[in-house]
Design goal:
The longest helix is centred in the last third of the chain and has 21 residues, at about 375-395. The chain has an eleven-stranded mixed β-sheet, sandwiched between helices. About 40% of the residues lie in helices and about 15% in strands. The chain has two domains: about 5-255, Amidase signature (AS) domain (Amidase signature (AS) enzymes), CATH 3.90.1300.10; about 255-310 and about 375-480, Amidase signature (AS) domain (Amidase signature (AS) enzymes, Alpha-Beta Complex). The protein has helices spanning about 10-20, 25-45, 50-65, 110-115, 160-170, 185-190, 225-235, 250-255, 275-290, 310-325, 340-350, 355-370, 375-395, 420-425, 430-435, 465-480; strands spanning about 45-50, 80-85, 120-125, 175-180, 195, 215-220, 265-270, 295-300, 400-405, 440-445, 455-460. The chain is built from 16 helices and eleven strands. The protein has about 475 residues and is an alpha/beta fold. It binds glutamine. Glutamine binds next to strand 4.
Amino acid sequence: MSTPTSLPSLTITAIREGLRKKDFSAKELAEAALAFAQAENPKTNAYLTFSPERALATAAKVDSEIAKGFPIGTLAGVPLGVKDVIVTKGVRTTCGSRILEHYIPPYDATAVTRLEDEGAVVIGKMNCDEFAMGSSNENSAYGPVRNPRALDRVPGGSSGGSAAAVAQGTAVVTLGSDTGGSIRQPASFCGVVGVTPTYGRVSRYGLVAFASSLDHIGPFARNVEDCATVLQAMAGRDDQDSTSAFAPIDDYHALMKHPVKGLRLGLPSEYFEGLTSETGSVIEEAVKKLESLGCEIRKISLPHTKYALSCYYIIATAEASSNLARYDGVRYTIRSEGATLSDMYRNTRGAGFGAEVKRRIMLGTYVLSAGYYDAYYKKAQQVRTLIARDFSDAFKDIDGILAPVSPFPAFKIGEKVDDPLTMYLSDIYTLTGDLAGVPCMSVPCGQSKDGLPIGLQIFAKHFDEATMFRVAYNYEQATSR
Ligand code: GLN
């Protein structure tokens, strides 16, 4: 068995090879991965719960299939971490919230089932901002996550634990969720690859709802190929989620290896105004690299980008206020007693939710209330259509879009926590992808002078993840040494 010191750099391909050559068994790998993750976790707080029993049961299954000479799954033996907003049967799922501190789900999310069917080994649940609301992972009721690349900095959010574990090497791949940027922004901050698929590409069944029309499940990995493998395994229609799509799924591996020569990539001017010179010049270099590989770079405009932040914070909070109504002290876990039923609701929610969640529920309730609905919620839905139309118009003449992920690299823990509006600006370049529902991802493209990772964002047409992976893969191959 390869020594645990090689764990931090393991990839899906390497695990496959190792199992085939019998360098290690799935059980040995699972045990080593768990021991390593448990020992390293105090540095970052990326995991909230470990699931050794479940991990060893799946690993044993993989080993017995290998012993019988059966073909093994595409993710056989791969240590997987799952963001704690995605339910896992029998394994505690907190959503980073006190209100679900002891919640043990009675079922599995479809995405998790599909990955396990391919042999993935769930080793634990990843820390995140409470109910996925945040950009720094400082809103978790279980303490912040530290960025493994600079321990005094945030890993980004809300999928901070998922990104940090892949960067730290305590998981080979992880699942995150993205409603406004929560996969791409932490991927960029931690220097790993993170993918937000097309809305509807991956079933949301078992993803605890934040804003249902914006929520996506997607993978984190150390390279583009591993992200593609995970997405391939979990994509596709699921009758348990009526918004999951019937759209055919391309063979990502085959298509992403095609050269990018001749692809037309747009640079939206709105994403480059006001960018710090440091991030801007790293992105410019990445664009030049793709140009040198034969891509045709075109200047484009996505004119409604300036409304994205306000539009997102109306729609997301409106949907959240409705989705979070179910945590009432009757269902799920904690309850704070009260003299009357409404006192009990109030006390439970008052004690169970953190400040950011309460802020969102209040905002959402306000924008949905009679008298304000037309002015805010309805208007925001109309603006969302305009933002989506910007993308479909642009995609008439181009194959993909390149942009920064975040205006700045990872910031210091505590730096923005008292200023929600500045915090919300972290997602200024990622919100549009969710509002339009197009696939988008972050791929590492360099670092700041302080050595902090910077990600390049790639958008593609609805259901054209293959082209997005192709751009990312070719870029990665051309830049990795
Ligand atoms: N940071 C954004 C928010 O706080 C996005 C969160 C997400 O994508 N889950 O809402």
